[in-house]
Amino acid sequence: KCSFSIYLAEGDALAKQGDYIKAVNAYTIALDIQPDDKNCLVARSKCHLKLGDADSALKDAESCLKDTHDFTKGLFQKAEALYAMGDFEFALVHYHRGNKTEARAERVQIGNPESQGGDR
After folding, report:
1. Gyration radius (Cα) of the chain, Å
2. Where does the chain have alpha helices with state H?
3. Rounded to whole angstroms, what are the CA distances from 120 to 43, 95, 106, 114?
4. What is the chain's pLDDT, residue by residue, as a tens digit (120 residues)?
5. Running DSSP on this structure, what letter comes out for residue 67?
6. pTM of the model
7. Contact of 23 with 47, CB cutoff 8 Å
8. Measured between alpha carbons, how far is 1 from 47 in angstroms, rounded to an integer?
């Protein structure tokens, strides 16, 4: 039996090749091993969107946000799914939340001497 990281890498490679159905299958196996991996959920959500399945894309995006509402990739992916479904107002809300969260994270990094590699 293969590990989570092998199935995740396989899904990533298949998605880059445009084989979204096989990528979804690989991500699904990876998520069977590690069900709450946020990055894997976002990756599978992107594949669902490429396949035209906005409902499944939204479910994955919402799953990666269930424990935390400030996961930037998840917020942007939820916005993409909502946009694909034609829910433009809520898509804009989530784009905005993602931008705010990303800007906040950048400010924290800028203000953290360890992230700049210096001792202050």
Report:
1. 16
2. 4-17, 20-33, 38-50, 54-63, 72-84, 88-110
3. 38, 35, 18, 9
4. 579 999 999 999 999 999 999 999 999 999 999 999 999 999 999 999 999 999 999 999 999 999 888 899 999 999 999 999 999 999 999 888 888 887 777 766 665 554 444 443
5. S
6. 0.83
7. yes
8. 24
Give 32's contacts (C-beta < 8 A, 6+ positions apart).
none
33 is written with which tokens? Answer: 């091993």
Amino acid at 19: D
Backbone angles phi, psi at 109, to 5 degrees: -65, -40
Distance CA 21, CA 48 (A): 8
